[in-house]
Amino acid sequence: MAGRARHPPSRLAVALLLGLASLIIPPTSRAQPPPAPATVPVGLVIDADSPVGRIARTTIPMALDDFYAAFPNASTRVRLLQHDSGGDVVAAASAALQLMTTQGARAILGPQSSVESAFVADLATRAQVPVVSFSATSPSVSAAGGRFFSRAALSDGAQAGAVAALAAYFGWRRVVPIYQDDDYGAAFVPFLADALATAASAAARAEVPYRCALPAGASADAVAAAMYRLESQQTRAFVVHARPALAELVFAAAAEAGMMAEGYAWVITDGLTGLLGSIRPPQGVIGLAPHVPDNNTPRMRASPPGLVGGESGGPTDFSGLGKSASGEKFLAAIANTTFDGLAGRFELVDGELAVPAFRIVNIMDDANERSLGFWTPEHGLHRKLGKPNNSGLAPVIWPAESTVVPVGWVQPTSGRKLRIAMPGSVDPGYGPIMHLDVDPATNRTVAGGFVIEVFEAAVRLLPYALPFEYVLVGSMHYDLLVEKVGDGEFDAAVADITITANRSQHVDFTLPYMTSGIAMVVPMRDQRSNRAWVFLKPLRYDLWLVSFVFLIFTGFVVWAVEHRVNSEFRGPPSYQIGTLLYFGFSTLYFAHREDLKSNLSRFAVVVWVFVVLILQSSYTASLTSMLTVPQLEPAIGDYASLWHGAGRVGIMNNSFMKASMTRSGFPQARLVPYRATQSFHEALLNGTIGAIVDETPYLRLFLKAYCDNFTQTAQTNKTGGFGFAFQKGSPYVADLSRAILNLTESEEMSAIERKWFGDAEGCASPQGSQFTSDSLSFGSFWGLFLITGATSLLCCALHLAAFLVASRRRIREAASAPGVSWKDRFHMFLKLFDDKDLSSHTFRAKGRGRSANDAGASPAVVHVAAGSPLSVSNHTYDMSDWSVSAPSPAPAAAGEVELAAGGHAEEEVPVPAVAPDPDGISYRIVAEHLTG
């Protein structure tokens, strides 16, 4: 509503009066005429000349008139006993005392100010007369200080959370309160500071860097001087909490000092927002006001909430009671009264008005209000009440009609700079991390290095200016430096400080700008000498085992295919096993001399020899590299070896590593601190220490300088990384952490790191001193073994299938022979598979190439055609009398018998006919007997 002020205190007073009037309405009967109205005296202590007092003088009588117009038959009449305190504490106390003693007031409304209310509350508690204040908002006075005091107005401390929510929403890291230096204003600042510092998240927290306290009677010149001092500072977000008269001076002086320009943010509390028509603040100010439900009725309507206690009989009951009894009963009635009035919900909780929602308004021209949203303790900021999911506020029109949200900071024209502690006397070996140089032109000490450049780059990314200066400190342990920052001796410390749990108890760290971990650097040693079994190392154990298995398997496949058609694979079992093993292993050197007869075995051997060729070449190359190239390995393989050894360990001086390793159980006597990288190098070379245990950034610099003879082992565990240390609760931590994240995600961080540490991790030796040759494993050759294995299995399967087809009739008859056990049948099958294949071309060719004379046979040679009756010399053997287990007949004289299987004799000697042998068993037995 343009130009019309909202007055929450007066509305609460009107609503309270109506509630009190309704409390004392006795029950009436329609059958009987109501008794004459009784008078209930109620005191009213106000400052009649103040804005709130003038409003109260007008609205309270109007409220009573409206009430009795709505309830004309009310049996009581509230009689106001008004006293003007003039804003004086003594006058207010005197008026309250007079009301309690001589005028018989049952209750007192007021006094108006918090100081007056605190004094009167003490008197009311002694006299047991309820005192209800509708304008005392200072948190310093409350029902806790006086049992008969009730506050029917909002405490100023209730809106501190709303101010903190606004600061977090707009990203203000610092807020300066401008307040009236009396009980009204000074009591609000601690609540505001606590609300700003205890936000839900660290990123939303803010601080009160300084305060602007103005006396209630400050002159215009004094207020102007204070505004000019604020303008010279860095903060640009202000909260005004003062009486209207002083607030008008503040806004006038701020406009004169140029503080109502773009980039400034102003927030006023509800005590000023409710009196916009009186103070008329500049455009762009944000105001807080309690939420009041809309009421279109110009004059308030209310319904009696009912009696509190059925035994209450109205004013006649109160007047008959003694002072103590009446006060207790009246106090209980007030405390238990709840109703919805023009000022919203009226409900007292522990003598305090329940905190409603706060409206967030934007002050426009001519003190017009523009709604931005609401704030509630449960849901925070949201545009519409009752819809917490609609978070945020409407766009704000800031001073100078700007729509850009003020960052709350500017480069100050004066003010204290942050004192940044920086360790001095840095070893030159760690110069890339941090160093100090003296400018010869100006003779000033200039800081440089990775740490300094990252810090200054992050500061440049802040949305505000952050003036600081480096303060050199002597060489000290970083734990002590962190404690000095925590004690307030320095504002922050910028160095290669590792974030640890112990240090974080004293300071707040930013997010780490460099990751880190604990690792170990040890000397390298050549492993080529004194290794008698080095020839086994080119192949790993799994490849050796698989190669051996495939040697045996390939030899077995060749034997299985060749032994029925090749005499070189026949003989006693021990001879055949030896031939099998010899053939398999001789393929490693391509020295096998056996003449293979079957194409299947030849094909399997060709594939296997190809695999052997690749294995042999790989083995030779790996063994050559192991014997000729330096094989450098760490002298200490891992942290466990270091732990169980007896060598001494080098650590950096003033590092947390000593305490960390000691806590883990490492003997402290074995720890040797060094300050310079050159000292580490010399100690490793002369054997004073066996290893260096430190953080990876330092080891990275060490290896960059001394990389030929040392190496870094695997990282053992992580650390918190390097961070910047600030005092506890510093608002810069969250902003710098975000700046570090933005810097890390940009190319600038990579450029800074390459500038100071180089492109490569550690070092790259031109001699290749860190070359190592790993053993070859089965995983590199499993494809070759798969090919040769599949080929050998296929050849073996084809040979077995051909054998089964050719011998199917004999196998079937042997399997169906009656009275033979399965073991005998199996032995018969093995015997059949082990026999020569007399039908093979190898044996036929051999038979055709020989004569009777060549064999030394006698002229009496019997040629037996395949499938013909068998005659030996002039004797005829009846084969039907033989069996597998029967002994063979005595052989003829040497040279008398020649068996030409499958051949055709030139001359055939007739022999007597014998019984047919369809199974060929007699043929096989004779062949075995004669051939051997």
UniProtKB/TrEMBL annotation:
InterPro entries: ANF_lig-bd_rcpt, Glu/Gly-bd, Ionotropic_Glu_rcpt, Iontro_rcpt_C, Iontropic_Glu_rcpt_pln, Peripla_BP_I
Keywords (A to Z) from UniProt: Disulfide bond, Glycoprotein, Ion channel, Ion transport, Ligand-gated ion channel, Membrane, Receptor, Signal, Transmembrane, Transmembrane helix, Transport
GO biological process, one term: monoatomic ion transmembrane transport
One of the record's GO cellular component terms: membrane
Domain of life: Eukaryota
Disulfide bridges in this chain: 707-763
Gene3D superfamilies associated with the record: 1.10.287.70, 3.40.50.2300, Periplasmic binding protein-like II
Membrane topology, record value: Multi-pass membrane protein
Predominant localisation class: membrane
Subcellular location(s) per record: Membrane
Ionotropic glutamate receptor C-terminal domain segment(s): 419-759
Segments crossing the lipid bilayer: 506-522, 543-561, 573-591, 603-621, 781-806
Signal peptide location: 1-31
Task of the protein: Glutamate-gated receptor that probably acts as non-selective cation channel.
Family as reported in the entry's similarity comment: Belongs to the glutamate-gated ion channel (TC 1.A.10.1) family.
UniProt protein name: Glutamate receptor
Organism lineage string: Eukaryota, Viridiplantae, Streptophyta, Embryophyta, Tracheophyta
